[in-house]
Specification:
Layout (H helix, E strand, L loop, with lengths): L6 H12 L5 H13 L1 H25 L6 H14 L5 H13 L1 H45 L2 H27 L1
Bound molecules: zinc ion (ZN).
Length: 176
């Protein structure tokens, strides 16, 4: 006489059975029960599908089909590509990878966004420098205004010295 498992016992063992973790003897009992019991069979199929989906999503995470050698190559050349350091042929090659590989495209978009951010902050600094520059120009103009009297003073001093020389000369000629 064959040993028969109850529905409760089979339900309790189902997940182990689905994952092949039962001894051959016990697995055979479960299989024999499933063959005769549509209710337990239905439970088993549902469980098996669930496990299958779970394994599938896990594999997707581990093995992204776009993480290829080509993509690794793209990643290592990305910064050079962005900075225009590659020759035309390599540029075309990387462009092609970016078009065909969504991961590469995403990386490219990310780095472009980053560059844009960097550029805008750079522009901002430049504008700040510009205002600083115009400020310094203004202050320089102000200084020039202040020192405009300088040449006049120099000229007057020179004129005074000239007059003094002439007067001294005239005195010398007249009295000696
Ligand atoms: Zn059953």
């Amino acid at each position: 006489m064959k040993y028969q498992l109850s529905c409760e016992q089979v339900t309790a063992l189902l997940s182990f059975y689905a994952e092949d973790k039962l001894s051959t003897k016990l697995a055979r009992y479960v299989r024999e029960h499933l063959e005769q019991c549509p209710e337990c069979m239905e439970k088993y199929i549902k469980l098996k599908n669930m496990i299958g989906n779970f394994i599938e999503t896990q594999n997707e995470e581990i093995e992204n089909p776009y993480i290829t050698k080509q993509y690794e190559d793209f990643k290592s050349n990305l910064s050079a590509y962005i900075d225009n350091e590659l020759d035309d042929l390599e540029n075309i090659r990387l462009k092609k990878i970016a078009i065909s590989n969504p991961l590469a495209r995403q990386d490219l978009e990310n780095i472009y966004t980053f560059k844009k951010l960097l550029h805008s902050s750079f522009e901002r600094t430049k504008n700040e420098l510009k205002t600083d520059y115009s400020k310094s120009v203004l202050s320089k103009l102000q200084q020039d205004k202040d020192s405009k009297q300088d040449p006049f003073i120099k000229l007057s001093i020179m004129f005074f010295i000239m007059i003094t020389c002439i007067v001294a000369g005239v005195i010398l000629i007249l009295y000696f």
